[in-house]
Structure formats: C-alpha cells, structure tokens
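G., the chain you wanted modeled:
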Amino acid sequence: MAARGTRGPDLAAALAYLDRFQFHGFRLGLERMEAVLDALGHPERAVPVVHVAGTNGKGSAAALITAILSAAGLRVGLYTSPHLHCLAERFRIGGRPIPEPELAERIHRIRRLVEAGCELSYFEATTAIAFDWFRDAAVDLAVVETGLGGRLDATNVVVPRVSVITGVGLDHRSYLGRTLAAIAREKAGIVKPGVPVVSGVRRAAARRVVHGRCRELAAPLSEPGRDFTVRRWSDLGFHYRGALWRLRRISLALRGAHQVRNAGLAVRACEILAAQGVPVTGAHVRAGCRRVSWPGRLEVLAGPIRVLLDGAHNPDGVRALRAALDAGREWPPPERRVLLWGCSDEGGDKDYAGMLALVAGAAGRVVVTEPPGPRRPVRVADWRGVSLPPGARLEVDWRRALDTAREELGPGDLLCVAGSLYLVGAVRSALVREGFRPSSRCGAGPERASVS
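Predicted structure as tokens:
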C-alpha cells in the first residue's frame, strides 16, 4: 500500500468515488465478483473462512465467532454490513477497523480495476476490498457475513471451513422470494459440498429446504436441540453442551434471548473448527462471549437518560425487540419509555405499519421519523396513510424527532430507537458526541464509545 512518508489517495475522494455505486441497487450474481477477484489474484482462496448467512442474527453470530477465535489468540478478520458510522467498520482485524490510508488505497485499487473494465456494485467492491486486505494482512481466519440472501451474494465465492445459517424470515421478498421456502433456498445457497453447516433455522418449511440442500451436497448439518444444546441460565448467560465441550454458566455480553440462540450457533461453529485443528477451547468461548461487542443491537447507552438502540427492521427482529422489552427487568415500566421509530421500504413490500404495531405497546409515547441513509425511507406522507399508535408524533427530520422523543424524559427513563440500522447509527453518533457511553452487561464497566 502507500509507502511510509508518501501521501496516498485521499479518503474523502475515495469514499465519494465509491458512493457513486450506492444507488445502483442490489445486483445479485457472481460473474462480476469472480472477474474482479481473478484480477486481484483470488485473495478469497488464500484465507480460511467462516461464512455466515441468515435473515436475522448473522452479524451477531459473526461477531461472536470472531470474539471467541480472537480470545484464542488468532488473528481474525471480520467483514460485515452495513456499517453504523463509517465504511471502515465493515473491515476489521483483531477488532480494529481498517486504517483510513489503507482503505483509501484499496478503494483506489478497485477504481483502477473498474476503469479497466470490471463492473461492480457497491457491495461487490467492498467485498473485494475485504478479501484483498485479509489476504495481504495474513489473517489466520476470516469471518464473512453475507449481504443479501446467499446463493448469489457477492461473498458466496468462498469454500469455507464451516457455514452458518442463523435463521430464515420474511425480509427482502422482492429480491429473495415471497415464501419462507424460497428465501431458505437462497440462504442455503452458501452450503458447499462436504463443508459442515450450523443451522438455527426453525420454521418447518425453511428447515426442510436446508436439510435437503445439506443431504444433496453431503454437508454435515448441526442443529440446536439435536446435535448440541443451548440453555439460558439467567439474563446474563447460558449453558452449552456439544460434541467436544460441556460449558456451564457462560456469561454473554449481548442482551436478549435471541442472542443466546445466536451464541449457541457461534459456539458450535467454533467447536467444529476445534475438531478441524483450530486451537480454540472452552476457555476461549467464555472469554469471547464475555467480551463480545456488537453495537446497535439491543445496545444500551448511559447518560442523563438511558437509551436502547436496536436495528430491528423486519418482523422477526421487531418481535425479538418486543420480547426483550417485555422480559427485561432492567427497563422502567412502559409509561416511562419512548419509542423513536423509522424504517426503510426499498423493496416496496414491507409491512411497516404492522411492525410498528408489534412494538409500540411497549412504550408510553411513539415518535416516527424518516431514517437517513441510501435506502428509500418510509416517509411521513406514507405514515399518514396508515393506522398509527394513539398519540404518535410524526417528524420528517430525525434530529428533530430525537429532540421530540427526549422531551419530558428524566433520569431512569428509557428512549428506545429502532426500525433501521441507519437511524440507529445516526442517533448513536449524535448521542456519543453528547457524552453518552455504552453500558457493559458483564461487569467490565462503561465501554469506550466510538463513532469512527
């Protein structure tokens, strides 16, 4: 990359160039990806990969796997999307985002390939950057999250050590299919011949698809309740029993019963890697689950009021949020909660009013806004055409909506922000700049906040 003491490409200019691809929409298919990786010398073949897909929970599972492997002293790359604050967050090694000069140089490298004739979408470009950086940095393993679906996703160019499918739900139906079975076929597209699969898919129609795909490709399948067990022991952790490990009272830094399920899948994936010779043990599981951080997913910020940030943006995610609000003894009663909600509807098929109705009853007041970001928001004009919770306020600008939502909240009260990761990221940045700080669950004290 850029030599020490020389000035490499400007990051702002590099990001502006990459942003030109933001509005090309989703472009499923692997031909463009294979062409650019060929031009880069196939970096995806140089790094052992754990591949993670799923409608919900794939980012959390990827973060958990990364934390466990990192606790084992391995040099682990992590590629996820979207980002909360800045593009560099999508690419991490050892928990640290890619340095800005490095990112600028790699975008410039992609630009040269595009100008030479390679056609790429935004996500294809970032995926190529991830594989290229991980190879050059000589990571021991890379944990790679799919962007959309699986079968035709840009990340599906790898032959991984283990594949993980966290679950299948109804989201992105205009791209992936209208039924659970159709969406499951896309997710199960990451299954490779003979490669072990860990699946948290629970709905019968989708589960049958995953089973059939694994049988077809002779891919060993692990499922909770059948091949390993995960049992929640308190609000703070879980027990795990698998082929190699019997672990009791594992502390988990992530909130919510659904994160226990994700943690179980992550532990099983690491157990499979251990059976393959990767030097990871039960002690590393404990350390990784205790230390893992995944901002914007049932994350609490502490300040003059408490703020709960959750990127729930589809029915299953919203149900998990509602369950956490209903079950969590750490929250004040509903009359002392305010929900700030905003969501996108890029595919035009989202039941946004139904999702809001699922969670609105957990708060005494509701403020609805338009989230920032590249995806088409549900606009205030759209909300005026549907049934809203009683007393709900509409604000076009998310900053004014945040101010409105905070009115009359005092110490001990809760502001919940949900519906869009883009809204969560924007609000998180604003509040961290005000001095709010993430609150740890596992006794480590306040965490250092970042909006890098």
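Residues 1-7, 443-452 have pLDDT under 50 and may be disordered.

Shout if anything looks off.
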